[in-house]
Write a structure and sequence with these properties.
about 230 residues; mainly alpha; rod-shaped
Amino acid sequence: MSTIDAAKQIMLRSGASWVLWFLGALSLISIGIIFERWLFYRARTCDLDATARRLGSRLAAGEFATAISELRATPSVAAAIAAAGLELAERGPQAADKAMQSAAALERSRLEQRLAYLGTLGNNAPFIGLFGTVIGVIGAFEELGHGAPGHGAGAAAAAQVASQAVMSSIAEALVATAVGILVALPAVAAYNFFQRRIASLLSGTEVLSNLVLAYLSEDRSPTTSARVAAR
């Protein structure tokens, strides 16, 4: 048996139904990821305007320790990055800026978790469905090739029945491609939406980080302010 015949027999024995089950499992996982990421991004959002006003009043009063505590109590991305900068306020604005850049990179990695799965599924689910369709088409033509040869009215009727069976098999095989596209669409849509959400969350962090740097760049000594606040 040649390699092609062996591969054909494996595909014919396995059929295309397992492809549909596989796509269904991948779809359930993607739905779980979409729901989890939506809740995660929702929790990491804050009212930037109100948070900036509270932070500005604390920094203006030199209450660095209180500002850090209030920022840490807020689960938002912007607050976590600003708190990382304030924790190094004693080392000067440059150190605080580097600390916030590091915190922003860490937050980005957390925000982008599991999104690679959605992107990969969106790109490859149609190909998985197409693979199932190819298996179904191979089975349909194999059935057509085994049609009983002959002549006369009986042979013509048999050929017509075989042709109808082949068309029915091909129609069923095309379902795999349709399911693959159906699985890919929400994954791609969610991936693009979450990417825009991440960009929005990270761009919003500039509001607080620039505010922190503005106060640290003043002539007042951050070390003195922090020590007064700690007392």
